[in-house]
Amino acid sequence: MSAALEEFCGSVFWNASYLTRPDADLPVCFQQTVLVWVPLGFFWILAPWQVLPMCKSRAKKSSVTKLYIIKQVLATLLMLTAAAELALAFVEDTEQAPLPAVQYTNPSLYVATWLLVLLIHDARRFCLRRDSGILFCFWTLSLLCGILPFQSLLRRALQAPISDMPRFVLFFISYGLQLLLFLVSGFSDVAPETKEITKKNPEVTASFLSSITFEWYTSMVFKGYRKPLEIEDIWELKGKDKTQAIYAVLEKNMKTAVRKAQAELEKRKRKKRRREGDPDHGNNMSKAQSQDILVLEEKQPKRKKKGDKGDSDPRKDFPRGWLVKTLCKTFWQNLLLSVAFKLVHDGLVFVSPQLLKLLIAFVSDEESFAWQGYLYAILLFLTALIQSLCLQQYFSLCFQLGINVRASLIAAIYKKALTMSSATRKESTVGETVNLMSADAQRFMDTANFVHQLWSSPLQIILSIVFLWRELGPSVLAGIAVIVLLIPINGFLVAKAKTIQVRNMKNKDERMKTMNEILNGIKVSLASFAVYVLVDENNILDAQKAFTAISLFNVLRFPMAMLPLVLSSLVQTNVSTARLERYLGREDLDTSAIHHNPIAGSAVRFSEATFAWEQDGNAAIRDVTLDIAPGSLVAVVGAVGSGKSSLVSAMLGEMENIKGHVNIQGSLAYVPQQAWIQNATLKDNILFGSELDEARYQQVIKACALLPDLELLPAGDQTEIGEKGINLSGGQKQRVSLARAVYSNADIYVLDDPLSAVDAHVGKYLFEHVLGPKGLLQKKTRILVTHSISFLPQVDNIVVLVAGVVSEHGSYSTLLANRGAFAQFLNLYGSQEEDASEKNTTAVALAGDEEQGDEDIEPCVEEGPDDVVTMTLKRDASIRQRELSRSLSKSSTNSWKKAQEEPPKKLKGQQLIEKEAVETGKVKFSMYLRYLHAVGLWYSFWVAMGYVGQYVAFVGTNLWLSAWTDDAQHYLNQTYPTEQRDLRIGVFGVLGVSQALFLLFATILSARGAMRASRVMHQQLLSNILRVPMSFFDTTPTGRIVNRFAKDIFTIDETIPMSFRSWLSCFMAIISTLLMISLATPFFALVIIPLSIFYYFVLRFYVSTSRQLRRLDSVTRSPIYSHFGETVSGLSVIRAFGHQERFLQQNESTMDINQKSVYAWIVSNRWLAIRLEFVGSLVVFFSALLAVISKGTLEGGIVGLSVSSALNVTQTLNWLVRTSSELETNIVAVERVHEYTKVKNEAPWVTEKRPPHGWPSKGEIQFVDYKVRYRPELELVLQGITCNIGSTEKVGVVGRTGAGKSSLTNCLFRVLEAAGGMIIIDEVDIATIGLHDLRQNLTIIPQDPVLFSGTLRMNLDPFDQYTDEEVWKALELAHLKTYVQDLPEGLLHLVSEAGENLSVGQRQLVCLARALLRKAKILILDEATAAVDLETDHLIQTTIRSEFADCTVLTIAHRLHTIMDSNRVMVLQAGRIVEYDSPEELLKKHGVFSALAKDAGITNIETTVL
């Protein structure tokens, strides 16, 4: 081989003697062949791919830029120099003897290469990123290889005159041009037409150098340093990283995988059945058959947990094992790339210890040449550099994988939620589902970050052992044995920690961690070195062996620590996988029973339809056969629980079909019984994603009686509605819900009792203007579930339901004539009918003559906010001046402002929910102090001392080791004295153990302190939140409060103590390392100064950006969950309107906003890491360089110590920044918790003055000139009320909206505190006693029934004060006894979240039963009977009359009938009492009350049978 090459060059190819002299050099032939061909080979293998865009691309070329021209000019010049060299060869060839072949081949190779470079530059104009990474690597390689000929030519020129002048000149010209090209290609080349894209995301056009060093991100870091970043400042995601793009791929892969898994599941079930011999096959026959039919209908075996009760629990089995496969298939490119980077990095990790070994040998050897030392120093620097570039790329890929996995999983969960069947939906509460999103998807993200450690850790461990064996031989086994022994102990501790974490006993958990750290802290190296010197007299520990071994043990430590962590996180992910697979593999809504066939003359047709809520449950509606004609108005009536809502749900496809089907023609609109309102502006709630058609919009608002409300609302229809419509009253919500349906302009309207929540006069208005024969919807098909009798004569058809069966249907007159159940029902309650119908005719006449009649008929908006919490929007805009919060969509606000040039004061109440304060800027130092105070100052001090002690011992250990290795030089040719050996080992061991003990001391103390801190802070937060006034909960979404308890307390519990500890140890480690290097080479102190300045600046820049990005991440994360929660609660509405797609898109855009802040944070970490690792590489370089320079004066031991410490410092530097920023980010939790411990409290629960025992005994209430306002800056709501309510008196409270009816009840409970005057109950001024004493002795039945998830018994008697008999008695009085007796679990029946599994009427009755049990002397009814049918209402009123005969009862009424038998009626108007007398007197007076009564069709007392 070499002979051929020598002939090719015409000179010697290789001669080792060239290197064994101080001025070493390489033979010319070697320089001309190997050093030229290596870069060219690299280039020609990879470069041709770069020309592909030219051939394939359809895109237009981007325009020419200055940078492009410079590159092309330089490349052309290069080509000319190569051509000149070739010409030169031909010229010389003719003059003299033939030249060696190399003079022809190299220039011609170069000509071809430069041509290809020109082509590549041009081809890259088709791409967004115009810079080529391969070219950049080629320039780098070419320059590096060119350095050797460069220096050798220079040296020769300096020694003797230049023999070959032209080639000499051409080489330097060419080298210079290459250097220029290298520099130029470092800049990003942005074409003018891609400027916009670059503004949105500079990453897509960044040059290769900028990409690998993350230089493109620097401008963001500067911006973040100058001002706190806002979400608008953050760059857009790349197209391929957007949620939609990722999820599209995942969904495709998921479908096929799930199908396979479901087939597997069917197989498993069949096997199981066979194995059990299916004992219950006989009796299960009919069910099994219907099952098969279903399976056939399904077209694919989607039924997973159907009918085979052979499984003890159908929830146990689900399609398994498909999720991880799907994720791998989706993200395979990312996985492969990161494997490549990780491999390169892992390889280079082992190069450094070998270089260190050579360096120590060099220092110890007098004869070695200086150039070797410099070469080692440079090589150390280069390996460190490449290693860090690879590592950062690898991390970047891993974290990207993490966020993409999370995004795609969240998208999948969201989509699943939209298509879930109702049976499936019952299996998981909203909370559990949100948990899948937050916890489980997050866990996948965390695992994805470290998933490669699974193969990388074992690889590193094996390589370390191999190299260690070469150093220390079999003695390594001692060290390895120690580690191996620690693994089961560690494993045991991890497992223990796991179970403890499950039980969450923090203290023990911390102790486990401590043991763990100690066992690792006792130096592994001690074991190996001791064994090594003890085994054999001749084994002397010299510096080379010791420090190479130590740096290898350092390498070994990381994978050893990582492996158990990765494994334990895999175990957790496994749990998450199962949960996600179960959720995502569940069955979708099966709408196969809903047909859409065109049938003439029928809009909705039920054919023998039987539906149940659960597949195997009892049928909720049975054998319903109905035909509803297009354009007709059909009323559905029946008692509570007779299946009215079920009939509606069956039409919407929300129920499980058992047999029969429903045929629906045309689009649907749905108004649920409990209005579902989104957290958006009122206008957006009505438009619900449709285009705005102003005329129609105004018409709908007018018809739905929303005009008066809009005047009340602070910002009209631009007012933001809080979560779940918290700042609207029940009736307003219902009307918004109705308006949404009317605006959607569908063909068929399904209305589930929309009139229950509104006043009688408003109900009538709505019926006339919207639902009735002359309303907006007169041409549409309307199906109206109702309790109100008064409208029945005007409907086309009435369907009467009894226990899920249609007992009769027909027109009003037909049913009356039939004398069936319906007729009896009417005779009971219908005596007011005549008046009502009379009233109706006049009303219709009035409506005809719009102009003048408008005043009478335009209803006043009714009152009665959602519950006690919601005392909100009242009379006039100035009353509710809410703090401005969430900026409205800016355009709408502006247009709105222009439309109404009024003082901006008006805008004050526009937004209810205050924007979550995002703390900006630096975290106050006081927060750290506050935390340390909570820990306890003594604790803090001793913890710090423990760490100092540990590191003093650490430095001592290392210095001792360095002295020990120098013995090898001192006792060169003598035997090593044994006592000396034993001393060395002994002290080394003692120092190692003391290190561990200090650590133990510090960790145990810090664990105790952390426990204490977290207890103190939780206590403060909880006790404060339980005492804040109600208005706080109005303006603060629940999610935000829960977040403080969940996320922030968790941070204080777990994260902050860890952060504090790791910060301390990093800080100490760095100080001690720098100390050791400076001891070895004092000059190093000079290098520290500029490096630490650079370090400090990078740190300051980074921390401010990173902290803000973390905050943005958490702020943008909550909308994902709240939007999800909102979606789940409004599922039936979204599905009925068919808006799933729009909600999916909204979810995707919400996700993307969060994704981009997380992505920015990830990149900021990489940006920092690369810069810090560069500092670290420089530390290594300088410590090596200084060791080389001061060669004669140093011992090998101290050099080994210095460089091996330096090799370790890089990671520690990195960690210091990471932990400081993490600490600073996490300490925000202390700040946030503190913020809520400062919220102003309501009055104390119990005061000095206790009311007498048994108070109130009489139940007399006196109001004395009582005034109240919602907040200090607002106007009065009650303007001086004075009245007496006698003992056991029954008082009805009426008044139009905003009159202050609800405020009155709020005052009795002191939810609002008086602004003047007082309320006296039984001679006690309620303002003087504690809130608990007051509230325990009053009872309220709220407008919206409040139930908790738990048993029915717990809901009735939360404090277990009553016997079972008393509870049953209360249930009987509340007419729930039969219902509860029929439940399988009776009183232990589980009530689901917010009582979802009871009908609204039943919930109301449960609240009544609860009040009956408590039997307080004063009872307040806040429109308690709005949601029940008349029959039940009648029963309730009777019960209240008999059972609360000896109590004082205040009733706030919407239906005037309910208070017509009160002793007195209080009529409120604008916060004052205008009339207060018995109903008979008031009816005669022709005042406000009689006007209200007239509206409700009551003319005299006798008509009210109720």
Topology:
Layout: H1 2-9, H2 28-46, H3 52-56, H4 66-95, H5 102-123, H6 133-159, H7 165-184, H8 195-200, H9 208-213, H10 218-226, H11 243-276, H12 285-298, H13 323-330, H14 332-349, H15 351-364, H16 370-419, H17 422-427, H18 430-450, H19 453-472, H20 476-503, H21 506-521, H22 524-535, H23 543-585, E1 594-595, E2 604-612, E3 619-628, E4 633-637, H24 644-652, E5 656-664, E6 668-671, H25 682-687, H26 694-703, H27 707-712, H28 730-744, E7 748-752, H29 760-771, E8 781-785, E9 797-802, E10 805-810, H30 812-818, H31 821-829, H32 833-848, H33 850-857, H34 890-899, H35 925-935, H36 937-970, H37 978-1025, H38 1030-1035, H39 1038-1080, H40 1084-1129, H41 1131-1137, H42 1140-1189, H43 1196-1237, E11 1261-1269, E12 1276-1285, E13 1290-1294, H44 1301-1308, E14 1314-1321, E15 1324-1325, H45 1331-1336, E16 1338-1341, E17 1350-1351, H46 1352-1356, H47 1364-1373, H48 1377-1382, E18 1390-1391, H49 1400-1414, E19 1418-1422, H50 1430-1443, E20 1448-1452, E21 1464-1469, E22 1472-1477, H51 1479-1485, H52 1488-1495
Parallel strand pairs: 1-5, 4-8, 4-9, 6-7, 7-8, 13-20, 13-21, 16-19, 19-20
Antiparallel strand pairs: 2-3, 2-5, 9-10, 11-12, 11-14, 14-15, 17-18, 21-22
Helix pairs in contact: 2-5, 2-6, 4-5, 4-7, 6-7, 10-40, 11-13, 11-16, 14-16, 15-16, 15-23, 15-43, 16-18, 16-42, 18-23, 18-40, 19-23, 20-21, 20-22, 20-23, 21-37, 22-37, 23-43, 32-33, 35-37, 35-43, 36-37, 36-39, 36-43, 37-39, 37-43, 39-40, 39-43, 40-42, 40-43, 42-43, 47-49
